[in-house]
What does this fold into?
Amino acid sequence: MKGTSVITWILIVCLSTVAVQSQYYSNTRPYDPMPEKVTNLHFFLHESLGGQNPTAVVLAQANITSNNSTVQFGILYAVDDPLQAGPEPNSEVIGNAQGLAVVAGINSTAAVTYFDFGFTTGELNGSSLSVFSRNPLIMAEREVSVVGGKGKFRMAKGFALINPYVLNATTIILEFNVTVVHY
Ligand SMILES: *[C@@H]1O[C@H](CO)[C@@H](O)[C@H](O)[C@H]1NC(C)=O
Ligand SMILES: *[C@@H]1O[C@H](CO)[C@@H](O)[C@H](O)[C@H]1NC(C)=O
Ligand SMILES: *[C@@H]1O[C@H](CO)[C@@H](O)[C@H](O)[C@H]1NC(C)=O
Ligand SMILES: *[C@@H]1O[C@H](CO)[C@@H](O)[C@H](O)[C@H]1NC(C)=O
Ligand SMILES: *[C@@H]1O[C@H](CO)[C@@H](O)[C@H](O)[C@H]1NC(C)=O
Ligand SMILES: *[C@@H]1O[C@H](CO)[C@@H](O)[C@H](O)[C@H]1NC(C)=O
Ligand SMILES: *[C@@H]1O[C@H](CO)[C@@H](O)[C@H](O)[C@H]1NC(C)=O
It folds into this structure.
């Protein structure tokens, strides 16, 4: 019957595919990159510390008894900060930054941050950037590195310049100018 022979063929094709797939890696071949593109982004990260709806919370803290430090060395934060088009609290939300920040400076207010900046509007909806860097928290001008990305930002690399817009005990608003090179 016609139906049976189709099923038989599907089985034969599947079985031969399984046989071929028992090698789990491809042959190594010359890398032929696609032409790269550059995208610039400009947005504001809003972080609330403490209060009713904190967007950064302490996960763990080292128990340092001989602590003379004025910085919070040894504290690990979980972060989910909205990314917004402007510095105003009610400006359009365009994504969020989720990740970890570890306060890693003994004598300086410096963190090492791993953030995934995910975008939720427009053409970039569903795309994200991996930002992994040392982050000197109180310097007026800072730079962090973009080490990868997803979606439109596959194979991304780049950097972000950060300008602290508001910086106090309860509110952090940072202006980001990101330059991303990607496929
Ligand atoms: C912190 O360390 C000190 C000294 O080792 C100890 O007495 C104290 O119980 C520790 N506190 C916590 C919360 O582990
Ligand atoms: C803490 O600071 C005081 C005064 O600056 C200093 O005398 C002391 O040695 C410091 N202790 C430690 C453990 O660093
Ligand atoms: C160390 O001391 C500083 C200043 O007193 C304080 O802000 C910080 O929370 C302390 N850190 C730890 C881990 O105890
Ligand atoms: C931090 O500062 C203290 C006192 O100035 C110094 O003894 C120590 O070596 C410094 N630690 C680091 C990691 O810079
Ligand atoms: C973004 O993508 C998600 C998942 O595909 C979808 O549910 C959502 O409506 C999109 N948002 C916008 C603003 O396009
Ligand atoms: C970001 O770019 C804007 C517009 O070019 C500029 O006004 C602003 O100073 C830049 N900020 C940073 C942190 O580079
Ligand atoms: C921090 O800045 C925000 C925004 O400018 C302001 O609403 C808030 O009152 C400030 N908080 C403190 C403790 O200064």
Observations:
- The helical segments are 2-21.
